[in-house]
Fold this protein.
Amino acid sequence: MKNLFKYKNLMGKKIKNICCIGAGYVGGPTMAVIAYKCPHLNVNVIDISEERIKSWNNKNADEIPIYEPGLSELIKKCRGKNLFFSNDIKKHIAEADMIFISVNTPTKTKGIGAGKASDLKWVESSARQIAMHANGFTIVVEKSTLPVKTAEVIKSILDAAQENYQNKSNSGKFSVLSNPEFLSEGTAINDLINPDRVLIGGEDEDSIEALSQIYNNWVPKEKILKTNIWSSELAKLTSNAFLAQRISSINSISALCEATGADIREVSRAIGSDSRIGSKFLESGPGFGGSCFKKDILNLVYLSEYFGLPEVASFWNEVVKINTWHQHRIAELITKKLFGTLSAKKIAILGFSFKSNTNDTRESAAIQICKDLMDEGAFLCIHDPKVSKGQIAKDLNCEPKNNNLESITIQEKAYSGVWQSAIDIKTALKNADAAVILTEWEEYSQINWYQLANTMRSPAWVFDSRSIINRKNVVDAGLNFWRVGDGVT
Ligand code: UDX
């Protein structure tokens, strides 16, 4: 039964029922942690996808739709007690005192702002569902990363739509908060349990306090930052933009290191020792990937343009441009080192996910680099311990060759650029002219080059875009070696 004390002033009244719209990458782990840390709360995660909810309810908690270290343990502890996954959207919205919106906000592919602005259709439909079914005073929390001023949009949808939908005798009132998520893939549970900070933006102090009390069950008060709603929305975008900007900065300097004889690892260490700069996020690689960085920066670019700030827009746009340039640069230098042509050459691609310990390939640098190499006529043999062949085919927009290597004609290799997936590293390297390390999987740092070098076609190369290979081992095995930002070799 709904808490009868749910009107304007929530102070002193306990939130009991929480609902989260969206059982995805943010909603699932965040609600699992809230349920675990707050046994006095009922947490319902709802989604329109029956398949996804079924999968969250899988008896075997190790087969839930998202793999994150520690997540299945939390699911085992809480599911069926105070954590539930359901398709009954109406019921759980109606019962909720607080509703989190954790739906995805992909970049728009057409219309105004295409390629930059976020598509808010799922946010809008969530707001409409809340307006239709909510019962009494309800706090609505934006969890998804959203453009600045989205709270205003949500609030106006809620206010306007409730006129149409609400049972007048039970008319709802809404308070909208922004509470962005800062979790990283692979460390999501740890990031949620030990956050650097929790950000809550809003106007209604009672609602802010109600959400703050939930976090305060495990997060110290001084780490809970309360801001106005626009600052909170903008801080999330800016936070990701700053992180991405650091990577673009260091990657741009890596090119200069290669040209001048400097070493990017030494430069990173030297600048990272300045406490004002700090040492994290200074590793040069093949270019940043992942679902957030590019999307959030493009969003920032769109907002800056929208608000008449073209210089600001172009500043942030360069961060994305340098990232793409860096990916092309790597593909180009591989081509140059292999005598300017990749036609009929086999290249082993080691790693396809955007970083290690995940099977996520969204915006992975490997996609662009592989496409460029295939455009040059290379034959790619792609290995990744977690990414499926089907996913690679989708990302490359090209089906793999299933026949064995020998049956692929020189013409096919030379003119269309083809790829196969390799079941292991050894298969990938066999007869290869080069190995290109694109993801920092632990197993690649342990490759025994002495054993495998003579299975490659001489003169063979190892291209290490993640700086995880011991140079001496490769060179002593008789292979040529390149690594990102290393102007010494
Ligand atoms: C990121 C943010 O870190 C997180 O706070 C936000 O909520 C979501 O976006 P995530 O996408 O999981 O998290 O990946 P992250 O670990 O930040 O790495 C992003 C990309 O940068 C990866 O491709 C990674 O390989 C690359 N990277 C990271 C570098 O190239 N060098 C570095 O020093 C760090």
The longest helix spans residues 229-260. Residues 181-185, 240, 243, 247, 281-283, 285, 288-290, 292-293, 354-355 surround uridine-5'-diphosphate-xylopyranose (CB under 6 Å). Residues 350 and 437 are 5 Å apart (CA to CA).
